[in-house]
Design brief:
elongated; alpha+beta; 7 strands; 21% strand; 7-stranded antiparallel sheet; 242 residues
Length: 242
């Protein structure tokens, strides 16, 4: 980190570093070491889903972005870092079995502690397995005794905030099918200054539509920094490292 701190000071105490200086900070050996470790961490989290019966791996996409400093603006505070680097990753699967059975297997697998249904049975506690199963059981509509209103879209979210799961679910009557489907938006920008990187595997990338055509249902697992925060930060001179 010492090399990064020294580089951060090259622009002086008042001037912000230019794009070249920021990219140099983002590509040091220390930065690459942290980047590699973060990618291993994210891919390990996603890899836990490969063993779930009924899920067929499609592709994995990694997005890695470093953002530079800002002096703020109207009603905004200046950033405390000269640079902050974060990584996120998605794993997209075809669902070969009934989605509710796959969701139960995910819940029983111990992969993560998912959000709890804090309000009790029959409530719309987003991110919980209980609610997701209720949505499918009720076909997306609350019981008549609860008003018969449309239910919010189901999803799973880990209590740690580092994993979320979305899937194709039954649309409400009158809604277009694509409104309840996993979006084909795994692409990321690789031209963000000072540093960005996109990586997909396998090399011949199937699309979400390809997986849906083959299996009928698509499931996407997303992971990011969560409670870990950015994998790399460079503090402004005079600020402590975050």
């Amino acid at each position: 980190m010492a090399a990064l701190g020294a580089a951060a000071l090259t622009g002086g105490c008042s001037a912000l570093p230019d794009d070249g200086e920021l990219r140099a900070m983002a590509t040091t050996a220390d930065a690459q070491h942290k980047r590699d470790a973060e990618e291993v961490r994210l891919r390990t989290l996603l890899g836990r889903f490969d063993g779930i019966e009924g899920l067929r791996p499609g592709f994995t996409a990694v997005s890695d972005i470093c953002t530079g400093p800002s002096d703020g603006g109207f009603k905004k505070e200046a950033t405390v870092h000269l640079m902050s680097c974060s990584m996120s990753a998605d794993a997209v699967y075809g669902v070969e079995d009934d989605i509710t059975e796959v969701l139960r297997r995910i819940g029983a697998s111990g992969i993560a502690t998912w959000s709890q249904n804090l309000n009790g049975p029959g409530s719309a506690s987003g991110g919980s397995l209980d609610y997701a199963l209720m949505y499918h059981r009720q076909q997306g509509v609350f019981p008549q005794e609860s008003g018969g209103l449309p239910m919010p879209a189901p999803y799973l979210k880990s209590e740690a905030g580092d994993l979320s799961v979305g899937w194709d679910y039954p649309p409400l009557p009158g809604d277009p099918p694509q409104s309840a489907q996993v979006a084909d938006d795994h692409s990321c920008r690789a031209d963000i200054i000072p540093y960005s990187r996109c990586a997909t595997s396998p090399g011949r990338l199937p699309s979400v539509a390809d997986l849906r055509a083959r299996y009928g249902t698509v499931l996407r697992v997303s992971t990011g920094a969560g409670s870990h925060g950015p994998y790399l930060t460079v503090p402004r001179p005079g600020n402590k490292t975050g």
